[in-house]
Write a structure and sequence with these properties.
Elements: H1 2-34, E1 39-41, H2 58-72, E2 76-80, E3 86-90, H3 93-100, H4 118-121, H5 130-140, H6 146-149, H7 152-170, E4 177-178, H8 180-194, H9 202-205, H10 211-227, H11 235-240, H12 242-271, H13 283-289, H14 300-331, H15 333-346, H16 355-360, H17 363-374, E5 380-384, E6 389-391, E7 394-396, E8 401-405, H18 406-409, H19 451-468, E9 469-473, E10 481-484, E11 486-489, E12 494-499
Parallel strand pairs: 1-2, 3-8
Antiparallel strand pairs: 2-3, 4-12, 5-8, 6-7, 9-12, 10-11
Length: 501
Amino acid sequence: MELVFLVLSALLSCIMIWKGIAIIQTYRMYINLYNSEKVMSIGRFHPIWGHLHLIPEFSDYVRLVKTGIQETGKKISGVWLMFFFPILTTCHPDTAKVLLRSSEPKPKRFGEAYYTITPWLGDGLVLSNGRKWERNRRLLTPAFHFDVLKPYVDLYNDVFDTFLNIMEKATAGGQSVEVQEPYILAALDTMLRSAFSYDSRIQEQSNKQHPYVEGVRRLTYLTTYRTLRPWLYPDFLFKLSAAGKEYFSHTKYIHEFDEKVIRDRRTSLESKPLASDKHRLDFLDILLTARDEQGVGLTDREVRDEVDTFLFAGHDTTSAALGWATYLLAQNLEEQQKVYDEVMHVVGDKPEVEWSDIQALQRLPLFIKESLRMYTPVPLISRVTTRETEIDGLIIPANNQVTILIDAMNHREDVWKDPETFRPDRFLDDSTRDPYSFVPFSAGPRNCIGQNFAMNEMKVALAKLVKRFRVLPDTDHTPVLSYEGILRSKTGIWVKLEQRK
């Protein structure tokens, strides 16, 4: 027995030594990788905390990378979230395109970029990988077909008529108005009514913040909060913390909210089947009825994961884009006049923006693109390498997380001449620009499936806004950028609205 014990102890010791050597070798590999002349460090590396002491908030990380780019011109940056969580960041089209052109998976494992958001959004299209992603992308693509999107235009008009009426009342005395929060409610109203046929009229319910909106706001904050605190990565520790308790409380509410939307749609389908002439096909219909080649549809959990994903992504990113576009209208009155002149030429005295108008508008899309460049709603995305990959001469090993900092790409002098100047004309000719230099909706096979939905909604909203109001700056309020998953302003976005005669 003693001999057996000694043998087992020796074997265990060998395994521990082998594992220890493997960890040391991996650590040395990462040290060599991050010390490469190709990689820009964001600051002094602490042997335990890595770079965490430099980035108390995610906004600090973005600021440090952008400052480093200006000083060094490098295309790859490195950051350590404590010494065992290294992350490379690409911040140039040349380095980003290597990942965007592929179908590399999203990093969701312990400690990776999307790990902290998975309990909320599940395994929907934004986060799923491999065959599941390929299958669900194929099943959901019809939900964004021309024939499905076209009828939504009437709803866009209705939603933003309500929004503008609210704005008119808020500015009746000539005072300025904060538009970031009202846009969130309007965009959520749009998603619920168009993609889910759920007539909630959220904008009209109350002056108080809707609990779904507040839940999303807190969840986006708490995911970045947890990302910058690796000691909260273990689920059991996070659940014991105050942040974790709040996170899962909001997650529970949002899941229940989305499940109610699904139940109501199932009931509606039973009483008014798709064959009915009175029924308008929407995103949720397609979710519930889609079948793959084997005749298998989405499970109840898969349906909820997709609803969680699209309801969040479809309203939060669009509302942020609308808020920043409105701010830029106020800051660039000459450009606003060009947009207004075009809207009056195309839409004229008609009370609604029609589908044909959306296709005819030329100046407004340029304005929106430049707005998305200046203030990118989704400032970064991430991938994980499945094989050894070369980026800018740097050999990156398999299973390494790489972040694409879109916001930094959009403010590079060597990509966008005079990047801090708002100039929509820069998009008049894209033929000489790398197509991967402007990717507000990502790019390649994993691009945003709902980008046409979002662009159409923004065109209707902004066309109706400039047609009804002259948007003027509010010099008493300055936006403070906050990169908490979605780019917003900590102090809100304030403008003055002058009724057009």
